[in-house]
Prior knowledge:
Blueprint: E1 4-9, H1 13-16, H2 27-33, H3 36-49, E2 54-57, H4 73-81, E3 104-105, H5 119-126, E4 130-136, H6 138-151, E5 155-164, H7 168-182, E6 184-186, H8 188-194
Amino acid sequence: xxxxxxxLIEFQNDFLKEEGAMKGTGIWKRAREHKVVENxxxxxxxxxxANIPIIHLPISFREGYPExxxxxxxxxxxxxxxxxxxxxxxxxxxxxxKPKEGDFVVDKRRLCAFCDTELESLLRxxxxxxxxxxxxITNWCVEQTAREAYDRGFKPFLLTDCMEALSDEEQKFAVExxxxxxxxxxxxxxxxxxx
Length: 195
């Protein structure tokens, strides 16, 4: 696959460790059951071999969450849980996918990885046209980023076994109804073959 980058959205301890601040969502358990991390590690290894840039997109906030003026909805849940505080173990990228030399890290503060970040300029400077997308949560940050990528002229490739939602129903709806309209749907095995 030419002119591609791999986006890894929110592979962080607060989501993916049983003791993480977002443990109440159960996302860590669903990710474990569906081997999301294992599948994504294989994709990242294949991307490195194919010289495809990897861009990690963690969400993090300063102490006291000064970046959020009026918390409500999903972000209020993050604040109430005390999650994703910059400099804490919970906000760190999981050990299995720690950034390596040559990887990029773009911190984000919103659902969409393009909102108030340098992601688009980085992609343009790298000559990227195709975005291979994995991460959390399928029908929130992943979908929001993929929709915005589509609107900005990038082609999303959404890895269904490298992302997770809070329920089977939410995962199925995004994968079957939303993703085919804004990009290409792939499994980890399929995208590795394309690399």
